[in-house]
Design brief:
The protein is of the alpha/beta class. Helices cover about 40% and strands about 15% of the residues. The chain has a seven-stranded parallel beta sheet with strand order 3-2-1-4-5-6-10, sandwiched between helices. Strands 7-9-11 form a three-stranded mixed beta sheet. The protein has a two-stranded parallel ribbon with strand order 8-12. The longest helix is centred in the first third of the chain and has 26 residues, at about 95-120.
Length: about 350
């Protein structure tokens, strides 16, 4: 199988590619624009493999996309390329509309032309989305199932919702064999250091404030990126075309609880600096901050036999250790691509 992965130099995309090269015989084409969040270092172990190919390309460039499809002849697409940081979407939504909506449209049209022209009967188009398209879930309510209504509340989630609808429509109208997945919050190695867990680990290490939005009671379901990548591979191989699969970690935690777990992990590793929880600071909340996300992953468990291999406790401990061992990487990122100024307050 020849698999085209868009956004393959990103956090989730690089995990998918590492697994495809390590655990399968697939030929993998990494199509990536290499924006601020891209991290080619995460793919160093695959770079010299003859089954790995890297193509620098903007998914909005339809002429370039057509050439890539003709050259590499993919049997499947895993579409991960997206602008994905909520705070950045508040400050500058135009990029999110362009990449997440226009880019998805361009990719769908290119894939449709390729599949129709070559009559690739086994072709698959897997679109990777988020639980944020379903909006905010009230405490005590059942987790989001695949049939949950859409109610996005941020520019980021609205653009991902639009992309989901485009993908579904291309399946229904044009017969493109599409699959859609909606996942919960990912964490793990190589995550860009502006996200919650790396921010807290790094700030705790450096003795700075641990900034928690609002009261910290917002709840997320946490999924290790390697478990997510394994689920995506399974959906690509065995999922039903036209189907949607929720992928969750069964690890609901409030943000403040996650921060306190990180503090406890840092206390264990640096007892002389304890307690790290004294560094916690509550800051102005994000505009339109969804209270709770939670995923019902019963469908993928029942149909495909998938379940996360890592508990949140063991995954978080390994993630803390990874960031402590890769300080050179995140220090370079922060110095060049991750300014310290708070984002996402433009609407306040």
């Amino acid at each position: 199988m020849r698999v085209l992965v868009t956004g393959g130099a990103g956090f989730i995309g690089s995990a998918v590619i590492r697994q495809l090269i390590r655990d399968t015989a697939a030929v993998v084409v990494n199509l990536d624009k290499i924006t601020y969040a891209a991290n080619p270092q995460a793919l160093e172990e695959t770079a010299t493999n003859p089954r790995y190919h890297e193509v620098r390309c903007d998914i909005c460039d339809r002429a370039r996309l057509a050439g890539v499809f003709e050259e590499h002849r993919p049997d499947a697409v895993i579409h991960l390329a997206a602008e994905s940081h909520v705070d950045r979407s508040i400050d500058g939504p135009a990029e999110f509309v362009q990449t997440n909506i226009v880019g998805t449209f361009a990719l769908l049209e290119t894939a449709r032309a390729w599949q129709t022209g070559r009559r690739r009967s086994g072709f698959r188009f897997l679109h990777v989305s988020t639980d944020e398209v379903f909006g905010s879930l009230a405490p005590g309510r059942s987790p989001f199932a695949e049939t949950a209504p859409y109610a996005p509340n941020s520019p980021y989630s609205a653009t991902k919702a639009a992309a989901d609808h485009l993908v579904r429509a291309w399946g229904e109208t044009y017969g493109l064999p599409v699959l859609i997945t909606n996942c919960s919050n990912n964490y793990g190695p190589w995550q860009f250091p502006e996200k919650l867990i790396p921010v807290m680990v790094i700030s705790a290490l450096e003795g700075g404030p641990l900034p928690v939005y609002g009261t910290g009671e917002n709840i997320r379901d946490w999924l290790h990126v390697e478990d997510h990548a394994a689920a995506l591979r399974l959906v690509l191989e065995r999922g039903r075309p036209g189907a949607r699969y929720n992928i969750g970690g069964d690890a609901e935690r409030s943000n403040i609880a996650v921060v306190r777990e990180i503090c406890a992990a840092m206390d264990a590793r640096f007892p002389g600096r304890s307690p790290h929880a004294r560094q916690i600071r509550f800051v102005a909340d994000r505009p339109g901050h969804d209270l709770r996300y939670a995923i019902d992953a019963a469908t993928i468990r029942r149909e495909l036999g998938w379940r996360p291999e890592r508990s949140f406790e063991e995954g978080l401990a390994a993630t803390v250790d990874w960031y402590l061992a890769h300080a050179d990487w995140w220090r370079t990122i922060r110095a060049t691509r991750c300014p310290g100024a708070r984002r996402g307050l433009a609407a306040v």
